[in-house]
Structures are given as structure tokens and as C-alpha cells.
Amino acid sequence: MDKMIRHLAGQRLMLGFNGTKFNKDLETIIREYQAGGIILFKPNIVSPDQVAALCARAQAYAASLNLPPLFIAVDQEGGAVSRLSPPFTQFDGNPLIRTREQAAAFARITAGELKQAGINMNLAPVMDVVPPGTDSIMKTRAFPGNAEAVADLGTTVIQTLQSSGIMAVAKHFPGIGRTVLDSHHHLPELDVELSELKAVDLLPFEAAVRADAAGIMISHILYPRLDPRWQASLSKAIAHDLIRHTLGFDGLVLTDDLDMKAIDQDMDVCMARILASEIDLALICHQGPDIEKAVMALTRQLSSDPKARASGRMCVQRIYRYKEAYLGWKKPDRL
Q: What distance lies between CA 254 and its chain's CA centroid?
């Protein structure tokens, strides 16, 4: 396999793994797959010292192979979605954050603890808008209030995290606050016009772009008025055209976890759609055969498609840019 193709494929993946220590699985993720990043969940985390040692070993191993440093991500929203248990500081969650001061305090304390643990990316904040009276899947995770309030609190979190050296990822584009089904188990559908999304749901994401959020995560929701065939995370119309052209975003675009039931496609199809949409990072959050399938699909398609290869280089250059900005890395001339 061509070394550059393998690198272009691997840097586009953010992968989960089993274990609380540096192990053979992480070695494979870094050495064989050359993954752009890893993602931590509760089973990977025992204590601040343990996770700091785990992250340091992973980064040292990547450096020993002359590979770029890893994005190391976690979902630390506070409240209902908190991967870091005590003694990490616990927060009540976004629904109880009502002021900029509260949002900034959450982000400042969280950023300090993430940085000390060796984590450099927070898959937060949630920027979904929950309409009053909606039994939304996001009701326990979203900021309270209308789109302007969500934008204000969310951008405070983004700016505070990033001023402390932690990349922030706004989610779940283009907005899932009105959905009542969980994409972990279903393929939810939101049948609304783009004009309605622009009037409400997109406003916080536009604010996130203005706040220079490092990343935006795409949902697995089907928006048939925008793309009748593909859910957002596999839709070029949403994951590329709407984000890059309409919103003017030039940061990192991430999928939600491709292990979710809302993605009922084989990895060849998923990776083809991700390449076509110029999504920067595909998340596969659980160890298993899907990881190797994704690596093989990406390498095959990058090898055979010059257009995918050209856009792939552009995506990896964007990944490098954030690794230089946040991870103290200088891209060597050979990359």
C-alpha cells in the first residue's frame, strides 16, 4: 500500500478502543492505521493520573514513528453526557446554564482539567435548539431558550475552551433539537424547509463559525427537504455545501459516531460518501471490524480516485492546521 495513501486515509479517522492503558490496540490504531485521533469514553477513564499517562504514552508513540500528534477527544458536555467521573469536576449540564458567567465557568474549569489529562478536543458544546413543549431527544443536553440564547451561551463555551487551548466542536449540525428519536437506535427524520432551519436551527451554528469553533459535528438525521436520499452525515448537500458554502466554515467537519444504528450502510458506502462530502474526520467510536473495514475502504477509494485524493490532501492539510495551532506541532516539509 502506498505510504501517502495510507496516511491520507488514517488521518481522516478518529477511533475508539478498549482499555485504560496504552496497549496493542492503540499501537495498531497509531502505527498501522495512522489515525488522526482517538476518542475516550468512560471505560477508558479511571482517574486524572491514569488518563494523563494513557494520553502521554499515545502521543509519545506517535512521535516516535514521526507521525503527527493525535487529536484526543471526549464528550464532556456536563450533566447527562459527562465521560469524566469524579474527582473531575461535575456540572449540572447545559439546561441549567442560564448566564454567560455560568457557561464560562463550566468551560474554564473543564478546559483546565482536560488539558491536564492530555485531552485536546471537547466534542461540545451542543448547539441544538429545543422548541418549548417538544419531547426532544436533546432536552437534557441543550441550553435553555431560543436560538439567540443558545448561540450566546454556546459561543461563550467555545471561546472559553479554545482560549484555554482545548478545541471545541459544535454539534449536531444542522440542528436536531426538534427530533424525538435517538439516532443511536433509529434514523430520525426532520421534514422541514431550509428556510425554517435558517430561521432557527442554523443560527447557533452561524454563531459558532463566527466564534472560530475548531469543529462542527454532523448529525445522522435525515432532512428530506435538503437531501431525500442521505442522512446529514453522509450528505454532500449538508456536510459540504451547507457548511462550507452557505456558512463559510473552514474548520474541521466531523461525523457523529458511524457505529450508530442511523447509519445502515456498509463501510464502503460510508467512506465513499465521506470522501465525496470532504468531511475531515469520520468517527468510529467502538473497537471492532468496522475500523479495519473503514481503513480498507478509504485506502481503496483514495488509491483509485484522483479527485478524492486531491480533496483528501486538502482535508488533511486542514487537520494539520489545527494540530499546529493547538498541539504544539510543526508540520515537516515531507508531509
A: 4
C-alpha cell of 322? 489545527
Residue 266: pLDDT over 90:
no
Is 256 marked active-site? yes
Among 128, 201, 227, 256, the active-site one is 256
Residue in this structure with the C-alpha cell 469524566, named with its chain if needed = 84
How far, CA to CA in Å, does 67 sit from each of 60, 62, 144, 330?
10, 5, 42, 11
Convert the pLDDT of each residue in 227-248 to its tens digit: 999 999 999 999 999 999 999 9
Q: Which residues contact 41 (CB under 8 A, 6 or more apart)?
A: 16, 74, 75, 83, 285
Distance, in Å, from the CA atom of 54 to the CA atom of 45, rounded to the nearest integer, reads 9
Query: Which residue type occupies 185?
Result: H
What's the CATH number for 3-327?
3.20.20.300
Q: Catalytic one among 92, 184, 185, 250?
A: 184
Q: Is residue 219 within 8 Å of residue 189, measured between CB atoms?
A: no
Q: Is 333 noted as a catalytic residue in this protein?
A: no
Stated pTM of the model:
0.96
Kindly provide the b/e burial profile for residues 208-245, where b requires at least 16 CB atoms within 10 angstroms of the residue's own CB: bbebebbbbbbbbbbbeebbeebbbbbbbbbbbebbee
Tell me what the mean pLDDT of segment 126-150 comes to: 95
